[in-house]
Amino acid sequence: MSNQRIVFRRYGRRQSGARRAKVLPETVVYRLEKGPGGKLAAVHTKSPDGVSTRRTARYFVLAAHAVEIPKLMLVSEVGNSSDQVGRNLMSHPSHFYECLAKDALWPGRGPIQQGSVNDRCDGPHRAKHAAIRYGSNNRSAHLRFTDQLLKEGIIGRELDERIRHDTSRYVSITTGMEMLPNPANRITLSDRKDSLGLPTPRIYFDVDEYCGNASIVAHEDFKQFDKAFEIQTRLGDRDAWRFAAHIMGSTIIGADPRTSVVDADCRSHDHSNLFIASTGVMPSSATWNPTLTGCALALRLAEVVAREA
What we know:
The chain is an alpha+beta fold. The chain contains five helices and 16 strands. It is elongated.
């Protein structure tokens, strides 16, 4: 259930035994209602014209990712006995390494990622700095180079030759870094309202010294990459922090209800019929894409609900 352009689903069973779902487009869940026995009783939704509807169910699954879920829980004052809802927001801080190599490598054929350097993913160094994974991006940059060369006024045969030369030698490496859960990196409610009069989220997010130390190591590795590729031209801003759309944390898993939001089945510690399907439940970030882990956790959650229902 999303707090922005929500799709709300209710499951039942046809006489044939097939599952069915009712989808309510353009419907926003704006409040979770607590009921007796520590369970949730209903969700309250609004349509685009502002009409409010109360909807009941036996089980409730929040699946609106790691920003809107904690926002909805904070608005509703639900599931936050640990004071961890909205906290421990994580991503993958990174630097981009780009250059033109001496030799033609012809990127762009085959999978977009064909390999990675994982030497710094684990080891004693993690006591001093974040784990680092270097992902080789197999992308063709012909559009990028064509646009830049045209802006420089290069046309005709020279344009063709330069596009061929630069595109064939383009190297792109993404530096993904582990980020530690930090309660200060968090989502709270702002004073601003959206078009339905609901609070918008306020996000505080910063990179700590642990990642900063990894940044120093990464830049030393970049010098080694320069030598290996015998670079002709250095591209882009290697110093700039970039952040992948790998949002994690804000409703983390844990065995202790005092320090976490959900248990190993993604069930709320506070409400036995409330589940969270999101990478927001992940309590640590590792070094790369969290999507498959999020999917696996959602399948586990679904099995629990199906078994109990």
